[in-house]
């Protein structure tokens, strides 16, 4: 998911490096050395939230404020693909499974949420059965049923012309998924025949092939229930019916969302959520520097979780008191440049390889904020995702590029120069700076790229994720950041490499890569029970993708989060790209 998290992102269910052992949220707190800052307030210390839960508390009351410099793709749990929205949406939308709040890799622990237990596989992993908890209710007091979960999957995966922002795993893998037209076109009550609901608390998924990681798939917000009678398609975002511990009090598109306690949420049905603050406010289109100031003042959380801005970073890292209130960790993400393999002349591998050799990755790393922001990358899979194997298909001295090799590849491609466009998100200054560094590298070898900036909220729906748009606008290169939808090679690779993930809008396979070999390997991997064998297949996919040169790995992303002192239960989790787990953040005592 994009950091995305889409995604997803996505923003992005990915593994991060766990530092030391730590207690779980429900039973422990951080034991980091205390530091007293310049205001006389004690801090848990730098990186404390990567080791344990900082300011563990069950205190209720107050307001938790999140801030974002742009707008999310959608608050609709069935129409989002950013990691931070996967994280936040659990406050008002309960999926069948979710991730247990905990530090680092501990946060990758799958636990039942709406479901009473993990899925029961049968037929070699082609059929999965889930039982819902008893006593589940929506915000209006009506019961939540298995039919609502079935409908949620149908609307989010089988109506791509209406809801195009999330992944389409269910559409790809459900039996007869290619024949079902979706709930907005199919007016019958039957729906997709391969999802059965024999009673109000049982849901059965019939897949066309074995899917050994299906529990991870149902942890996406696409399985959060939606009552069919209340669904208004793309406008459902205006009146989301809550199944979680909070509900929407108000929603102003492009401005803010306010959530308050859901009175019909029953803690007896939910061992994970604590419903601590009275109110949760999500402010949109806030100046990035203002967000940093509010975070360091302890009054807001950076919703997107990409970390402090470059100017703030320098201030924080040189001030021991401020550094003590930060968490620097791997985000389980890859920052990369997607090369449009369908756009001439980048449809030729030699032209793509010219880009690979031309880029000075050190200059990109510097533009992103230096090593604290990421290590120089050379593979598709980050080191903390199963299947990673160290490799560098386009190695250059000190990772600074090789002009001679780049020009040789350009010549082999039949070109002496190329004119193209490169996209970056207008509200992400470091991404823009990285794109500018790439432009400077490419110019030295005769590839002239002009920068096109687009807002992150519509980056995939209207611009980089729309093949017709990129073709028409001569967009050959696109800045991208990706984190795994779940912590496995498949969870990382599927939505950016599988040809079936290419869509006419909202696509995350920005390279439009459609390799039969890679598609077949992905299918083989997810059906393989043996973990070691499955991981070796992910390694093969990585190698094949790099041989085809359809994306340029830039850095293995790291995040530098400001940790607001006024909030409780802060823990940096692997499940959501190193972000703080938003499920149980509260307000500290004054």
Helix and strand layout, with pairings?
Blueprint: E1 35-36, E2 42-43, E3 63-67, H1 83-89, E4 97-99, E5 110-112, E6 120-122, E7 127-131, H2 146-157, H3 169-173, E8 195-199, E9 202-206, H4 214-217, E10 246-252, E11 256-261, E12 279-283, H5 288-296, E13 301-302, H6 310-317, H7 320-323, E14 326-339, H8 349-358, H9 361-368, E15 374-376, H10 403-412, E16 418-425, H11 429-443, E17 447-454, H12 459-463, H13 467-472, E18 475-483, H14 489-497, H15 516-526, H16 531-548, E19 551-562, E20 567-568, E21 586-587
Helix pairs in contact: 8-10, 9-11, 14-15, 14-16, 15-16
Organism: Streptomyces eurythermus
Pfam family, one: SBP_bac_5
Domain Solute-binding protein family: 109-501
Describe what this molecule looks like in 3D.
The structure is a single chain. 24% of the residues lie in helices and 19% in strands. It is of the alpha+beta class and 590 residues long. A six-stranded mixed sheet has the order 15-19-14-18-16-17. A hairpin with a 3-residue loop joins strand 10 and strand 11 (256-261). Helix 8 (349-358) runs antiparallel to helix 10 (403-412), helix 14 packs parallel to helix 16 (531-548) and helix 15 (516-526) runs antiparallel to helix 16 (531-548). Residues 3-34 have low confidence and may be disordered.
| Uncertain stretches of 5 or more adjacent residues | 3-34
Main pleated-sheet profile: 6 strands, mixed
Straight-line N-to-C gap: 37 Å
Rg (C-alpha, Å):
23 Å
Number of helices: 16
Question: Roughly how much helix do the residues carry, as a percent range?
Answer: 10-25%
Structural class: alpha+beta
Strand order of the largest sheet: 15-19-14-18-16-17
């Amino acid at each position: 998911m994009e950091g995305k998290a889409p995604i997803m992102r996505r923003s992005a269910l990915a593994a991060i490096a766990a530092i030391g052992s730590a207690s779980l949220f429900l039973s422990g707190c951080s034991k980091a050395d205390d530091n007293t800052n310049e205001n006389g307030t004690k801090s848990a210390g730098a990186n404390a939230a990567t080791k344990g839960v900082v300011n563990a508390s069950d205190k209720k009351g107050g307001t938790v404020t999140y801030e974002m410099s742009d707008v999310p793709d959608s608050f609709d749990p069935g129409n989002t693909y950013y990691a931070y929205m996967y994280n936040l949406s659990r406050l008002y939308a309960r999926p069948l499974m979710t991730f247990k709040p905990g530090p680092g890799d501990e946060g990758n622990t799958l636990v039942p949420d709406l479901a009473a237990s993990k899925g029961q596989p049968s037929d070699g992993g082609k059929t999965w059965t889930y039982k819902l908890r008893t006593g589940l209710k929506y915000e209006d007091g009506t019961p939540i049923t298995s039919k609502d979960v079935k409908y949620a999957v149908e609307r989010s995966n089988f109506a791509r012309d209406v809801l195009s922002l999330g992944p389409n795993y269910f559409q790809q893998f459900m039996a007869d998924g290619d024949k079902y037209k979706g709930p907005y076109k199919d007016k019958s009550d039957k729906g997709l025949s391969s999802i059965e609901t024999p009673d109000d608390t049982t849901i059965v998924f019939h897949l066309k092939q074995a899917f050994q990681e299906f529990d991870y798939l149902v942890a996406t917000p696409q399985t959060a229930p939606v009552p069919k009678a209340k669904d208004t398609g793309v406008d459902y975002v205006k009146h989301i019916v809550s199944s979680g511990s909070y509900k929407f009090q108000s929603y102003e598109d492009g401005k803010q969302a306010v959530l308050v306690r859901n009175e019909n949420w029953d803690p007896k049905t939910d061992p994970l959520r604590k419903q601590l603050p009275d109110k949760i406010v999500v402010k949109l289109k806030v100046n990035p520097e203002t967000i940093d100031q509010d975070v360091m003042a302890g009054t807001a959380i950076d919703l997107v979780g990409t970390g402090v801005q470059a100017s703030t970073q320098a201030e924080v890292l040189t001030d021991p008191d401020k550094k003590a209130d930060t968490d620097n960790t791997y985000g389980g993400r890859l920052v990369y440049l997607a090369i449009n393999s369908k756009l001439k002349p980048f449809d030729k591998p030699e032209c793509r390889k010219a880009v690979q050799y031309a880029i000075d990755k050190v200059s990109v790393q510097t533009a992103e904020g230096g090593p604290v922001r990421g290590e120089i990358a050379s593979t598709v899979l980050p080191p903390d995702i199963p299947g990673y194997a160290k490799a560098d298909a386009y190695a250059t001295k000190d990772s600074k590029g090789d002009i001679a090799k780049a020009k040789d590849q350009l010549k082999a491609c039949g070109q002496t120069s190329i004119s193209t466009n490169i996209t970056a998100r207008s509200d992400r200054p470091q991404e823009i700076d990285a794109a500018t560094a790439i432009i400077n590298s490419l110019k030295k070898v005769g590839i002239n790229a002009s920068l096109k900036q687009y807002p992150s909220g519509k980056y995939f729906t209207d611009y980089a994720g729309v093949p017709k748009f990129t073709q028409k606008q001569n967009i050959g290169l696109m800045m991208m950041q990706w984190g795994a939808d779940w912590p496995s090679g498949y969870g990382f690779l599927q939505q950016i490499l599988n040809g079936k993930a290419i869509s006419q809008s909202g696509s995350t396979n920005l390279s439009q890569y459609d390799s039969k070999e890679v598609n077949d390997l992905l299918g083989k991997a997810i059906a393989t029970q043996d973990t070691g064998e499955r991981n070796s297949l992910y390694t093969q996919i990585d190698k094949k993708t790099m041989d085809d040169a359809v994306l340029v790995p830039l850095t293995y992303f790291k995040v530098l989060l400001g940790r607001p002192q006024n909030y409780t239960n802060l823990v940096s989790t692997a499940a959501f790209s190193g972000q703080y787990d938003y499920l149980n953040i509260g307000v500290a005592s004054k």
